[in-house]
Amino acid sequence: MTDMPSSLIATLALKRLAATPAYREMFLACASLRDFLRPAALRYIISEDRAQMLDKLAALQLKGYRTGLEYVGEEANTLAEVQQATEEYLRLIDAMSSHGGLQEPTQLGFDLSNVGSLISRELALENCNRILARAAERSVGVIISMERSQWTDSILDIFLALSRQHSHLGITLQAQLNRTADDLEDVLKTGCKVRLVKGVYSEPAAVALPRGEALDQRYLGLLERIRGAGIAYAFATQDPSLVQTICASGLADGGELEMLHGVRPQLIKSVKDQGRVKTRVSAVYGTNWYLHLLHRIAEFPENIFLALDDVASKRQSTTAASY
Q1: SS3 46
Q2: What share of the chain is helix, strand, coil (3-state, %, to 5)?
Q3: Which CATH number does the domain housing residue 109 bear?
Q4: pTM of the full structure
Q5: φ and ψ at 144, to 5 degrees?
Q6: Nearest to 119 by CA among 78, 69, 81, 73
Q7: Residue 69 and residue 135: Cα distance in Å, rounded?
Q8: Is 274 part of any domain?
Q9: Is 216 within 8 Å of 209 (Cβ atoms)?
Q10: What are residue 256's DSSP bridge partners?
Q11: Which intervals hold domain Proline dehydrogenase (predicted)?
Q12: Please, what is the Cα angle at 144 between 298 and 188, to 5 degrees?
């Protein structure tokens, strides 16, 4: 018998499922599997439909939240997937600008692997430049997500190259990675926005800290350095104790709390309602939500019970009402 807590066993198992390409391919190929899991996914996916998604973002803004958006998908290995994702971002920017209900531009985010980085650096740069140029025309901020540690060098290389031309660009950094304290030095020199996360991927002990007090302290130390640089920044976390610590200190001043749509909405609502810290709900939309669903459950393994109940009951998601 293992002495590992059952919650950690569940987390590691879900992350292994998310990291196995064969299961992702099975999800994409099997409509019945998608139909089966969809009720659980809709707790976290703001919509599978673009028009409905824009209406829901407008509703969140009316409630006082800033909004962020990502077209769900990552680790695209074919030109067809990459082209589809890139074109969707271009259409999305145009659709947001013409939607009468959005009070301010929604921040866009994406994984570089979704726009070509796994195929070539040149392809990713080309597609990013297309997206960023269109976004600049509409005053839309763009933030690059961080992915598995084996791609960190590539992601930072592409970000630093893009940052020379695009001041509305930002980058996500993972506190769990041991290298982030060193990476931060070059990132801060760009003056671009930084979004700090703990990190969702299962990483070797040699390169990353596990969840716990040591990671929380590292997160706070990195956030202090970011705030001191005088740049735009977001502390992105769903951890209630960490949110409380940051909001009770000066670390929140000038920054914003960013939380994923559908994950502990009451927590971000309580911060927003206090009126001292800006809040951003970061949503994802689209149909390729397999990895996103597993990552959300893995963060809080007790959510697997909610997922089972969602699948069994097939009732309509009430997530929006919690905001």
Answers
A1: coil
A2: 55, 15, 30
A3: 3.20.20.220
A4: 0.91
A5: -85, 135
A6: 78
A7: 13
A8: yes
A9: no
A10: 234, 278
A11: 55-287
A12: 110
Nearest CA to 187 out of 196, 176, 198 is that of 196
Would you state the pLDDT for residue 3? 65
Q: Where are the beta strands (DSSP E) in 112-266?
A: 142-144, 169-174, 193-197, 233-236, 256-260
Secondary structure element (H or E) that encloses residue 97, with its range: helix 79-98
95: in domain: yes
Ranges of residues in the chain whose predicted pLDDT is under 70: 1-4, 7
Residue with tokens 């810290």: 277
| Tokens 């909610």 belong to residue | 306
Contact 108, 135 (CB under 8 A): yes
Does 85 fall in a domain? yes
What is the token pair recorded at 37? 């899991």
What distance in Å separates the CA atoms of residue 111 and residue 72, rounded to the nearest whole number? 9
94, 106, 192: which is closest to 141 by C-alpha? 106
C-alpha distances (whole Å) from 221 to each of 117, 176, 215, 251, 279 are 30, 12, 10, 10, 21
Instruction: Indicate whether 271 belongs to any domain.
Output: yes
| CA nearest to 209, candidates 182, 176, 183 | 176
Q: What is the pLDDT of residues 241-251, one digit of tens each?
A: 999 999 999 89
Which of 139, 225, 142 is CA-nearest to residue 180? 225
CA 224 to chain centre: 21
209 token code pair? 């800290």
**Domain encompassing residue 234:** 45-288
pLDDT tens sequence across 63-98: 999 999 999 877 888 999 999 999 999 999 999 999
Take residue 167 and report the two structure tokens written for it: 């001041």
